[in-house]
Amino acid sequence: MPLESEVLDALNRFAAGSEDLIFVLNREDRIEYCNSSTLRLIGCEKREAVGRAFTDFVFENRGDVMGKNLKSVFDSGKPVTFENCGVTLSGKDICLEVRLSPIANGDKTTGAVLGIARDITEQKRRELLIAHSRREWLQAVDGMPYPLALVRSNHRIERLNLAMANRLGSTVRDAIGLTCFEALHGTPEPPSFCPLLNGKDANAHSSKIIEHHNDDDLLCTISAIRDSDGMTTGCLYVARRISESDRATEVKRSGEEYMRMLLKGSDHMVYIQNADGRYAYFSAMPGNRIPWGVIGGFPFDFFEPGVAFEIVGRVKEAVKRGTELTHQLDFTWGEEVLRFFDRIVPVRDAMGRIQAVTTVSMKVAEFRHSKGKALSGKHGSKDLSGREREVLRLIALGLTSSQIATGLSISRKTVETHRARIMRKLDVHKTSALVSYAAKAGLLD
Asked: 115 with 155, same domain?
């Protein structure tokens, strides 16, 4: 039964500009209507297509999938959706996602079927390539002698090889879904070097650490896995046994990398050191992370000798003087420089003896040597008067307004006026921002 003109007009308005294949078939499986996208694919004019059986244009090489679904819609009056990846149109093999919906007559019987098909050939090709690549990758992983695990952003193990399952004392099936930091590192929370803690941080690429397992020292590499937007979606953990001759070098190298990742991911830190410099406590913000790998170690385990001597030296100085110190320290890895402003406070026991020092460390700048000093703020320090620059420097060193007033022989009110003027000129509103600016402008050098 031919389609009414109103139905044809509605179809033309709906389907004219669509990239989908839109067509209407009657009970004889003949074409009542098809849009321009369909005509382009079958390679003929509309007058040549209407009235002819769809099988004149469509060859199905995997059985009569289309015919069976058409019959189902005509018999049941209910729509169906299916994929047909065995279709040849105009000599081209394609894969279609098809939805067939009934068009009812006046007596509510199905007189025709409206079909909407989408070419998903390229999508299916990509899926097959991905599936093939994944199978090859999994085969390669299962054959690796090194323990390996793939971890997703929820810190759960998604995939591991037999070597890793043996290391965990489990089967591959039972280990999937375990929490990575508990199973792999034996810690109650993610370690500070974990790439999953850093989201889109471009520096959260990979890290190397030394771990001890069953009397073996393992060099473990944890590498970030990123999506097309640069967001960290998982990480790959690979462990290999290292020889005794390699151990000292790798311990030092992994300790330095461990600390670099910790410092880069932290805005400020609080740590306690014994009088000899050994770390007794360490907490990094944001996240209130406790890097267990640092506690119990010496600065020489994590920094090059010059920096380590400086850190231990200021501990001994604070213990000897018994007074609070302020100190600026640059940590350098290649061209990368992280600048921290530290407040070192002696800790006394009940007898008044100094047994340790507490350091509150705030990151104030991050830059690369090749570009010189970090850039200054919105306004250069040249916008400040000599007195304002001096006040800014003393503020950044942690002095109170009263202490600055005494040191410069001016009133406290004058110091506050200078502070307000500096903030206005630099367009900053917090003391921490003043400290950061002072460091970047080189006023603390």
From this structure: no
